[in-house]
Amino acid sequence: MPWKCPQCNGETDLGFNICWTCRAPRPGTQPGSEFPTNDLLVSTTPSLHTHNIDRYVGPVFGETIYGANMMRDFLAALTDITGGRSHQYESVLARGRSTAIAEMARQAKSLGGNAIVGMQMDYSSLGNSMLMICCSGTAVFATPKQSVDEPTQSSTP
């Protein structure tokens, strides 16, 4: 179910913290909580509820590899013994995910896209403490759907 933007009355799918129409932050979200995608829409679905896909630009990818240092390994081992969440690894994972998505978005923009559909994430470990994060999607050029309430511009008087 989409949420309605209080600034422009546009609709945006849940899971997005910025309005697809006017780029205003979603009420109740923290500033900067959205992915740094250079003003591109990024969706895991093959279509966009509020936009028409006019042109498929092509596949785009983002990859990053992060190493966890010895101190993180030590603290994570303690967490493993005592139980609970490993905030050290969670922060590396979050930073890596944002980096991979931002890289994919830059690639889409350089190809002429303004949105990415069908995004997928993949996580792998390399060696003892390396984390590889890859994402892929399809760059598209999309235009906002016109609301039923909006008047259409006519070329005849």
TrEMBL record:
Pfam families: YbjQ_1 (PF01906). Belongs to the UPF0145 family. PANTHER family: UPF0145 PROTEIN YBJQ. HAMAP family: UPF0145. This is UPF0145 protein FHS27_004915.
